[in-house]
Amino acid sequence: MSMLAWTFICPLIGFLLLASLRDRLSQLAATIIGVGSMLLSAIAALMTSMDYLQNFNGQAVNVPLWTWLKVGEFAPAFGLHFDGLTLTMTGIITGVGFLIHLFASWYMNGETGFARFFSYLNLFVASMLLLVQADNLLLLYLGWEGVGICSYLLIGFYFHERANGRAAIKAFTVTRVGDVFLAIGLFLLFREFGTLTISEIITRTPEVLSLNNPTAILITMMLVGGAWGKSAQIPLHTWLADAMAGPTPVSALIHAATMVTAGVYLIARMHPLFILTPEVLLYWVGGIGAISMLVAGFCALAQTDIKRILAYSTMSQLGYMFIALGVGAWQAAIFHLMTHAFFKALLFLASGAVIISVHHEQNIFKMGGLAKKIPLVFACFVVGGGALVALPWITVGFYSKEAILWEAYAGGYQALFWAGVFGAFLTSIYTFRLIWITFFGKEKTHAEKLSGISYWLPLTVLLVLSTGLGAMIVPPLGEVLPLGPGQLLEQTGEAHIKHTAEYIALAAMAAGLVLAVILYAINQGRLLQNFKNTAIGGALYHWCYHGLGFDALYDIVFVKPFLGIAKLLKGDPVDKLINIFPALASVGNKLVAKTQTGLLRTHVLGFGLGLVIVLILAMMMVV
Fold this sequence. Notes:
Blueprint: H1 6-21, H2 27-55, E1 61-67, E2 77-82, H3 84-107, H4 114-133, H5 137-155, H6 162-193, H7 198-208, H8 214-230, H9 239-242, H10 248-257, H11 260-269, H12 271-275, H13 278-302, H14 306-326, H15 330-357, H16 375-389, H17 396-410, H18 414-439, H19 453-465, H20 485-491, H21 498-522, H22 526-532, H23 535-545, H24 550-570, H25 573-578, H26 580-593, H27 600-622
Antiparallel strand pairs: 1-2
């Protein structure tokens, strides 16, 4: 396990070199440092994983590095924890992260701030690795905040455009709300357990907390609040679509290998706490996941930006992961996290290739006819889109999504199961719409042919991983996460209804594809356009296009009152109130100063009046 620390040290060194040398580096040197550091990180992760699988038989390994800080009895270590869940997350982050870095060297060719971009990208990966490898929650929180600041820097990379800066601030602000919840959860955990070491908390949870204990409920609700922010679930989801303001490789990294997976990882890692709070798990995790999935599906149907469609699809797939967590299908959630990393990275990088080909155009209705111009990218969209809709047997998404739906069905969570089925129906429609409009029909924008090994190699590798071959990678989660209800039925040989769940899901997917073919391929969208021209259709389209109005609602409830208070306090009313006293003193000073004339007769008159007043007062006292 001696190589474990190098998985995050390599990209961290890359960040330091790129950040310090920045403008003095050539593009080639920046590429070697940025991409090379990720390659070394991936190699270190591979060696560590092989060592773990061969020598540790599924047992967790702790690698203490040094004592981070010591305040009384509170002395958290800067230490790493490695088990099957860490192995899975580390492999995803370094493997997919390396491919995204390699593609980014092609995508960002000739861009201003090339070295700066890769410095942020390296720090992003290092922070995420620290998050998933931390052996205590304080160190996890450091990585958690690290990916937050990196998302701000990368989303706002093109900061010369004000809208991009606003999108970065929005992402930073909204996710900070979730971070506050998580921080409160950590304080509560330390109060109850006296430690933030993850393994100790997991081991002692049954002793310290009881089923549906109010404190346990409060802790898990705080942890879920943090997960909502990072994994873009309602109500903290509004930042995700606007995060598309950053360069496309950033979108791929955020949506596939880092950031949005943090919330899913956190809940899975702390699963013993959630097992003690089943209602929080079912409603606040699974229920919110189902609602987020459906909201994202409807929003994706109305988008015209190729990246925003994929962004809402990410939110939808994260909803599936939350459903899996909510029904206790911990392993299915992480398996879908892995498969989603493969096909979503493929789709985002392929969308980046499309954008480069059509001269940075992102509106799918201004594309068309690209299937013959960029055949590799078209193949990537077909395979990636097939995995997204869970095309049976030949795509990786089928195996993980069907596993989630089966677990929900087996556990008797009918509402979540049917929500997932309807989500599959919506996914088929918007995915076919995306591919058909972009790659078929008349060419509306001239497309350039693409070339370069750093362009086609990452796409090819991810394309292969997004097929059924990717499902052959089985995460070693058996010693870390409990079995789900469907897995338990399979072990006892009682999974007779599994095919029923699969057939229902397949029917929903097929129905969505058939409807999409009719609407977009056969009818050419005329029926939808006619509906959109009606009052109801126009309103529904506007509502879905603008994210079901969540931004407008938050603007009314939070932003405008905040700006109103800021405007009120702009003049500093407290300071003005305090200034009344010096103002009164100033007025008194001016009045008294008028008596100082310098004339003898005035002084004599004043002396006389004063003497008369004194005599009158004396006489009154005598009387």
